[in-house]
Amino acid sequence: MEPQRRPGGRSARVREAVLDATTAELATHGYQGLTVDAVAQRAGVHKTTVYRRWRGPEGLVADALERAAQQPWPIPDTGTLTGDLRALTELVRAGFADPESGTVATAFIAAGMQHPDAAAALRTFYAARHRDAAAIVERAVVRGEVEPEVDAVEIVQLAVAPLFHRLFITHEPVTTDQARRAADVAAALARMPIAT
Amino acid sequence: MEPQRRPGGRSARVREAVLDATTAELATHGYQGLTVDAVAQRAGVHKTTVYRRWRGPEGLVADALERAAQQPWPIPDTGTLTGDLRALTELVRAGFADPESGTVATAFIAAGMQHPDAAAALRTFYAARHRDAAAIVERAVVRGEVEPEVDAVEIVQLAVAPLFHRLFITHEPVTTDQARRAADVAAALARMPIAT
Question: Is domain B9-69 in CATH 1.10.10.60, yes or no?
Answer without folding.
Answer: yes
